[in-house]
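Task card 7
Instruction: Convert sequence to structure tokens.
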Amino acid sequence: MGETRHTMGDDSEWVKLPVDQKCEHKLWKARLSGYEEALKIFQKIKDEKSPEWSKYLGLIKKFVTDSNAVVQLKGLEAALVYVENAHVAGKTTGEVVSGIVSKVFNQPKARAKELGIEICLMYIEIEKGEAVQEELLKGLDSKNPKITVACIETLRKALSEFGSKIILLKPIIKVLPKLFESREKAIRDEAKLIAVEIYRWIRDALKAPLQNINSVQLKELEEEWCKLPPGAPKPTRFLRSQQELEAKLEQQQSAGGDAEGGGDDGDEVPQIDAYELLEAVEILSKLPKDFYDKIEAKKWQERKEALEAVEILVKNPKLEAGDYSDLVKALKKVVGKDTNVMLVALAAKCLTGLAVGLRKKFGQYAGHVVPTILEKFKEKKPQVVQALQEAIDAIFLTTTLQSISEDILAVMDNKNPTIKQQTSLFIARSFRHCTSSTLPKSLLKPFCAALLKHINDSAPEVRDAAFEALGTALKVVGEKAVNPFLADVDKLKLDRIKECSEKVELVYGKKAGATADKRESKALPGKTVASGAAGDKDVKDAAAPKSGPVKKASVTKASGPPKKGKPATSGATGGAGSKNKKGPDVKEIVEPELSVEVCEEKASVVLPPTCLQLLDSGNWKERLACMEEFQKAVELMDRTEMPCQALVRMLAKKPGWKETNFQVMQMKLHIVALVAQKGNFSKTSAQVVLDGLVDKIGDVKCGNNAKEALTAIAEACLLPWTAEQVMSMAFSQKNPKNQSETLNWLSNAIKEFGFSGLNVKAFISNVKTALAATNPAVRTSAITLLGVMYLYVGPSLRMFFEDEKTALLSQIDAEFEKMQGQTPPAPTRGTTKNTGGGTDEGEDGDEPDEGGSDVVDLLPRVEISDKITLELVSKIGDKNWKIRKEGLDEVSSIINEAKFIQPNIGELPAALKGRLNDSNKILVQQTLNILQQLAVAMGPNVKQHVKNLGIPIITVLGDSKNNVRAAALATVNAWAEQTGMKEWLEGEDLSEELKKENPFLRQELLGWLAEKLPALRSTPTDLILCVPHLYSCLEDRNGDVRKKAQDALPFFMMHLGYEKMAKATGKLKPTSKDQVLAMLEKAKVNMPAKPAAPAKTSSKPAGGAGPAKFQPVSAPVEDSMSSPAESKPDPKKARGGGVSSKAKGVQGKKMPSKASLKEEDDRSGPIFIVVPNGKEQRMKDEKALKVLKWNFTTPRDEYIEQLKMQMSSCVARWLQDEMFHSDFQHHNKALAVMVDHLESEKEGVISCLDLILKWLTLRFFDTNTSVLMKALEYLKSLFTLLSDEEYHLTENEASSFIPYLVLKVGEPKDVIRKDVRAILNRMCLVYPASKMFPFIMEGTKSKNSKQRAECLEELGCLVESYGMNVCQPTPGKALKEMAIHIGDRDNTVRNAALNTIVTVYNVHGDQVFKLIGNLSEKDMSMLEERIKRSAKRPAAAPIKQVEERPQRTQNLNSNANMLRKGPAEDMSSRLNQARSLSGHSEAAHTVPREFQLDLDEIENDNGTVRCEMPALVQHKLDDIFEPVLIPEPKIRAVSPHFDDMHSNTASTINFIISQVASGDINTSVQALTQIDEVLRQEDKSEAMSGHIDQFLIATFMQLRLIYHTHMADEKLDKDEIIKLYSCIIGNMISLFQMENLAREASTGVLKDLMHGLITLMLDSRIEDLEEGQQVFRSVNLLVVKVLEKSDQTNILSALLVLLQDSLLATAGSPKFSELVMKCLWRMVRLLPDTINSINLDRILLDIHIFMKVFPKEKLKQCKSEFPIRTLKTLLHTLCKLKGPKILDHLTMIDNKNESELEAHLCRMMKHSLDQMGSKSDKETEKGASRMDEKSSKAKVSDFLAEIFKKIGSKENTKEGLAELYEYKKKYSDADIEPFLKNSSQFFQSYVERGLRVIEMEREGKGRITSSTGISPQMEVSCVPTPTSTVSSVGNTNGEEVGPSVYLERLKILRQRCGLENTKQDDRPSLTLLSKPSVPTVVSSTDMLHSKLSQIRESREQHQHLDLDSNQMHSATTSSSSSSSSTAANIDDLKKRLERIKSSRK
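Output:
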């Protein structure tokens, strides 16, 4: 009983559960009840976007796959309602449909299957057809026949209801044959049903794919097919997006009328092309092996066999793409040359088969074959003619009329009538396939002209064919378009043409000519495009319905950007078409020439009689009166009645144009203008007056009137004609004034009328005449005219003048330069009468780049095919490369001579293609150059060679050589500029290239596409073929390929759309698929919008280029964003979608989001609701484990659900929806709202803080960077607010947030790491640092090395700012943990660990070693080395440390939580400081030990701090002062300078410098201007001292930014960049004119600076800018200044390292190294003057390193011999200047045998070395450097004995020790035990101690000297062997002196040097010596640190000058911590003192 009750209890438990939990319950009853309730809920929810739906997202699959059949039925019903109504249902498509296929279709219950099918169809209705179809097709492979049958049935129903537009037939047809073969009858029957259904939709297209199924089945099918009704089927069910349309249609139908027709038209079923459904067959490999031999065989039977084999292969209806060029060439040869006509016909059949099987892919060969076939029409045999006709018709369909038009027109002039007849017939057949858009005026014109010749031919068959062709044209484009070309045809012939037109049946059915015009006005855009797809660039035109605004869009779309953006205003544009643009009177006015008598008669009718009589009166006044009357009469005349010719003839009557009185003449000219304006003025009338006008145009008084008259005539008779007449008249006479004024008039007229229709060729010859004129005015006018022409024609104009004299050419270039960047003005004349312009506008579409393409067509093109002889082609393919080169040279010169060429270039393409994979790379490059020439020479016609020559160029992008790739890229770009991108993207060629797994090819090609795609407005569909390969590139092994693929991804998406791209991932492996989808998501955010068609290509949008240009990008995001105000030109924000951090609404109000007004009301309240004790309750729950503890590695769903639950009570509902939305855009919105409400809802924020922080931790796991950045922004503001509110984080909040924040410290992006560190810093204000410590310590255990390093650095900052107390649990444990990382395998982590411990050491002293415990020897030595280095190089500690010390201690002790605000803020700023200084791993963090000790004393005794400087000089140590001689006043002078530098100026300068590197150009420019002011004023420029490196770093960072970002940014105005460049260069020049400042630049910085400047000089993009040359000149000047004025050692060193890097970099350009070497040569020239100021040791060390990396052998392999020559020259000069002493300067080189440097120097010195011997005492100093030579010669033991003997002797002890040290260092494994064994214990320890002292000294030598401020000159003198000079210590005063005296002297000297150290002008290049023992060039940031440390150190020295000698003593001893006895220290001090003295002498 108990048991049953128990189960009962269990049973009823579920009743109380919420619905969604019931649905998942394990009891079936519970689930049944759950599904029933869910069904009711679903039916009730009215709002499809209700959040309720989202609850069930994950459950729907369970609904349909329930294991209990009864429950499953209920689940299916509920699922159906869900899918129908829920907005989010689409997300479940894949999983639910696959569940239905596997778990529902196999159920026995029919109802289940029905519901399953219903759900699938519902998914299709909600636009998820593709996903459903994919799952169903997978189901066809199921082993269970039930499932297969159900899947087929579902597909059939879907097709019958939705139609073939929605259901893709190709994949279904592919599997049909397999289904027909199934063993299961049910499957075969179902297959039959679906085959019938498919046939309904596509009719006979289905027959081909099914031709191979069982014949019985086929027969049954055909019977079924016959029964089908004939009409086209219509879909009965519509997608959601179409349902509104459907509703409208129904309304229309019910209203009656002819809506039916309208509907038909729009919804016509797409005709499926059977070709699409076929599988392609590969035939090239199946050709007979000996095919190419047989086809050349002598016997015709063999040739026939070869052709028959091909004929069989090409019968396959669809062929696979491949390289058919050889096969086509062979067939073409048979057609053209074979004598056996039967074979000609056979070859033609083969070509037909190829063209039909390849379709568009055959297009590339069409150009080669068409001329051959057309010329073969001379054959009369009917079967040959028929075969040729079929072939050429098939070929026509594979290409466009445009691309073969030239070949056809060339044949039209053939003498043979049959050829003429067949060509015309072919044209007629071709025209039938055209539409008005694919047969534009530009094509019609030449065809009509050629055909018009034929209609007058003597042969009747030729005439008939021409009539037919013209009739077809008339039918296609309508009378309006053709009539202008038929103006001169007589009536009879015109009727004949119209009669032919009636009979024509067009392919794109059009009933009669008249409808053409109607069609034009309403053209359905979709259709026209489809039909026009064959057309070439004319498609753009097709897409635009012929109406105003849209039209403009289509005009400017060109096959590249328009050459010069000419505004698309309606008039005077369409090329030659403009003649017929005069609205009503389209026809030109033609009138016969009248005799003078007739003219007089006509004039007398309209003019007063007196007027005519006085025309030739002798009295000028009478003539003037006569003219006045004449003018009045003309003004009153009506246009129709005005006899223009008569009037102008009267004016020309004697005296006519010889009129002597200027007033009469002016009137006369004015009347001509009037007549031309007011009357119907014909060319005949114009001929009468033009001569006279030209004669008067140069007249001073009448010239202007003459010009007015000419302009009026030009308006009446069109400018092209008028201009031609006027020019020829002006240049047939001799008057230079007339000539120059004519040219001036023309320049002006072109601007007024526009350029269209002008005959460039005619002008050019006249302009050339003018340029050669002796009169300068004529030349100037000609150049001005050229400038105007350049506006319209573009750069190609220059080609005509390349052979002019250089002086003249430079003038022309200067004129062109002026015009660059300008847009031609809109034509103001010649358009007025164009009333019919609107309809006519369509014509502009043909000429994409107006003037541009016009002009290219007008250029005189030369036919060069005859020069491409067989001999030349064989030369190019010769075995010997020299002959190949000759061949290529010839081709190059042929193209050069011709300048512009015809597209027919014979066999050249194949020959050049072969050379692209030549083994000789020089020839490959030469070929590429030729191809570039070819592109320019051939212009747009190069299109037809893209497939056979362009694609092979792309293959070259895979070459391993950098320069070859660069050349290939340049070539591809040159081609693309001419052809546009469409040709490249069509077909499979490009995707085939991308498929090749060559990393170079892939990265170059993707880079190229990423550059080109964004500019295109549309792309061919074939682009999708590249996508699978793009995906494989995203996972390529090569990082560069991956990066390029990611860069290109958004641009592919921009054209293909996210859906298609995502669908294409279906074929990837699951792991890859997820990665790729994630990248797609990311790219979706960054996806730019397609470039909109510019409405007017005016020079700049009104609002400045910035904002307007950026608008389109944000448009697609707009609905999800707050408001359009968001689309600022800030790419970061716009890309991030979402609302920017402080998004202002339209009116500047803050609007969280403005999706709809309805929601707006709900959003007005607070976003965080304060729930009393809510937070406390949540904490209790967590403690009591009622809820999950917030602790995970990645957030699981239950955590997210729990947080959602907890938030529901205290966060506004709408905000919560945004926060938990699946799309990151919404998270961005949520964050923006939270930022906005932060200030206003402080209470709420604090009450929900734990939840907010938890939600932010979830965001840390998102992949989207924009969300992460926003989250971090918010956190920064949040913690600032919390610290202002003096809030303290609870443990709960901290533990559930900090660990996840610490994870982000390891992000790869710098920006994010910086933000996280800033947040950690701010957190210390609201959470004790000591508690933060363990969290960060935990972070050091991460696997991510970046995270480990950053956490260690953060720990260092904490210790530095808060002392050792922060180390938890104990300092010992903490330090041990940190020390483990010294042995880390990652370099940055090691450095960070070392730096952190050094920081602790600086705070805590030697105790650190005790706390750390045992370390491995290697780690310990690294640590000691680093500590030693940090002690030598005073650290960049926070400057405020002195004052802050007392505050800190009290603060930490009194209040661990830091509630007191003041100190806490200080701490934060100090922590920041520490952080900013710890930016570089090498920088040690605090003041060295000595000074810290003293600090404490100073703190206790304030008296000592105010040290009086002059008191120092009172010591009476004259004997020391004498030799040192430091002028006293310096001590004084320094201090004010210092305080100055550290007062505000320094921080201001720091701030300004930081702005120099800003990404915003204006900020940077302003900062540069401020610095320039400082630099220009002598008194102020001092302030820059100490900031030089920092400034230069900022500058070259800006240079990099310009180079990589700004220059690449299309949207930026290039003038801005030039402005920025000029500011930068100006500043630098000012800086490098001041030697004292220039000298402060350190090596690392100079290296980077020179790198930046040289890169800038090589930037080809700048050359194209207007000011480019000026920039280059300035940079040149600057580089010279840098070389001359910088510290010579630093710059030499920098150049050597730069040269080494540039030679190592494989990707670098050879040009770069060459310029670096030029700089080195200049330095070599300066050496004689500068040799004494150079630190030779440093330079030789650099040369040594260089020679180590590049031994001679390696250098000799370099392409050029410059590097080796440069090096030799440098060494030679140094040897010459220094002589044998040069060998003393090798001291900094550790192991001289590593490079050939020493040997090289010795060789150079050889002759002088013999004379050297050991001349003087000084020579002994060279012991060290001679050592190696000796050691190699003498026996080791003798050598050591010698050394020990020296040590034993009193005088030479030191020297012996030094030699022994050198020896041990060189031969570290040498055994000196035997020598020591026999000596006393004292001697042994003496030797050891001596060696140790030397070691310390050598190690620290450079650093000590630099920190004491000894100038480099001193350094050089003491480098060789400091020991030898020390031996004379006693001798200076003749007695031994006690240590205290030395200390005293040293103290004074150091203090002096220290003071001098600050005055950097006198002591340049101090910084360099700060690290001589580390030879590599230190990075720039390091340099800055060491600089700071020096400034600080000297400052500290001023503060502690008055310490007594004991203190000083203790300080020094502690600094040499590792020395064991005081004696050694004293020794050391003596040495230092001695060295300082000797160097001062």
